[in-house]
Amino acid sequence: MNEHYVINLGRQLGSGGKEIGEKLAKKLGISFYDKELINLASKESGLCKEFFEKADEKASQTILGGLFGTRFPFITEGAYPYNSYLSNDSLFKIQSDVIRKLAEEKSCLFVGRCADYILRDHPRCANVFVSAAPEARIERLMKLHDITADEAEELMEKADKKRSSYYNYYSYNTWGAAATYHLCIDSSVLGIDGTVDFIKQFVTMKLKL
Questions:
Q1: CATH code at 150?
Q2: pTM above 0.90, yes or no
Q3: How far is CA 38 from the centre of its chain?
């Protein structure tokens, strides 16, 4: 495990964090995980992936109302025995186990999902937060989703609220606060590729790659 390392990347919606993470992982030749964790957690637990999609990066709450009684049954007989109660906390634990298992097996880059907190005891990790100027985020979201500036701003505000609530709830740290991470960077200053190169240089030095 000592040879393996992890990069945990938090991000604001519209900052290009996912693209930055993908490009960085490719440059470093390591595995990249974002939404893929939902499929892996589903396979590991035997639970429908809809459970994980419903709970993805949301703070604790029971999700029974929206799922049980609908057409999302357990996939296998060996599913986690949560009886008739399935909470976001239970799903968070399953996903956490998947993240820890992957980090033991190989070097990885994880986007969001409190991976920096889950892997806080990992001997070789770099925790990065990517932000961007509001106008840059709005412009990016408008292009990505073909929406108006007002719609982009609303989407941005909702995402920030959801992600901060989730992160603060599970990690006991503060989402986006400099003291929480090894590096915080504004992607609108250097652009996507420039940010990738900057983080790569930082990670290389920190982890002595």
A1: 3.40.50.300
A2: no
A3: 11
